[in-house]
Amino acid sequence: MIDFSQLTDIQIKNYLIMNKVCIVTNCTMLPGSLYLASLKTYINYIPQNNYYVIPGIKQGNAHYGLNAFVDMITTLKRFPFKYVIYIDEDCFISDFRLLLAEFEKFKEDDKYCLAGPQDGGVLSHRNHSSLLINTFISFWDLAVFNNINTNDFISLIKSCESPNYFKNNINKDTLSLMEKLADESINKCKEFRINTFNKETSPYAEVVKNDKSNAIEPNQVPYSVNNDDSYEPYYALLRAIVLLTNKPIYYFIASDYYKEDSQIDNSGLTSVIANSENNNIILYHSWFSRAYNMYMPFYKENHNKRINTIIKNL
């Protein structure tokens, strides 16, 4: 394994070039967005030609999630990239070298098709699939798209909107392996929360349980799982990739962040990703990027101040 802690910034850039890795984000690039604050946390490590921005507005409409990722795939197929490290605009990297160490584990031996934090069971307010990932930080192996034309791929994604189609067509051994890895990862994430924050649950879990005014997901059960969930439209894309590759997903150690004396955020809403070797924090994910700088009292009071504090104290 490569010891990324010993590499210079230039050597890291060369690593990305030699391994044909493209760093990708999705943002509007409008004044006041989080794009530049996020980019600032890793810009020194990425070659100019290994960076791609998926436009957050396309033909006058918001462009993110499933449509943005299909755009990313069809665009990058025209270039000689092998991998994508996708970083949302509300992700702030605290240790890019540790991120690359995790990426190296993902790509070694060609075992996995995707990597990211589970979207159920590990973060108090994300109570969806533990088999699939939330893509705010994710690794993608582009080789899967080499031997399928775009129309066939879009057709497969459409079929995979149904969890039943996925369950009926996946190799049963692969599904069993994914379920085993998912359960192990949930336990590792819980252990990380307890060891790091001395409490099993985040204070934000109380908001998750009791917030009737949350129009999107009121009264959730914190850290719960629903593997038949199709909450995120991009789940269909992730299922399609698993079916095409017959490979499982690499799950990150993910957690709510709720250190009581933290100058970064003690609310429990912000999420962190930790290195699997030593549990050191790799990045902070603030959530609510699309609410940032909205001139509405609720968002301004509850998110701008919190996100600005994260940016200031990283």
Can you put this structure into words, describing what you see?
The protein has 314 residues and is α+β, with helices and mostly antiparallel strands. It has one domain (4-313). Helices cover 37% and strands 17% of the residues. It has ten helices and 14 strands. The strands form four sheets. Strands 2-1-5-10-7-11 form a six-stranded mixed sheet, sandwiched between helices. A four-stranded antiparallel sheet has the order 6-14-13-12. The longest helix is centred in the middle third of the chain and has 26 residues, at 172-197. The radius of gyration is 19 Å and the shape is globular. It starts with 8 loop residues before the first helix and ends with a helix.
Q: Briefly, what is this?
A:
This protein has ten helices and 14 strands. The protein has 314 residues and is α+β, with helices and mostly antiparallel strands.
Topology:
Blueprint: H1 9-18, E1 21-27, H2 35-39, E2 51-55, E3 57-58, E4 61-62, H3 66-76, E5 83-87, E6 91-93, H4 96-107, E7 114-116, E8 120-123, E9 126-127, E10 137-141, H5 150-159, H6 163-169, H7 172-197, H8 204-210, H9 235-245, E11 249-251, E12 253-256, E13 271-274, E14 281-285, H10 297-313
Helix pairs in contact: 5-9
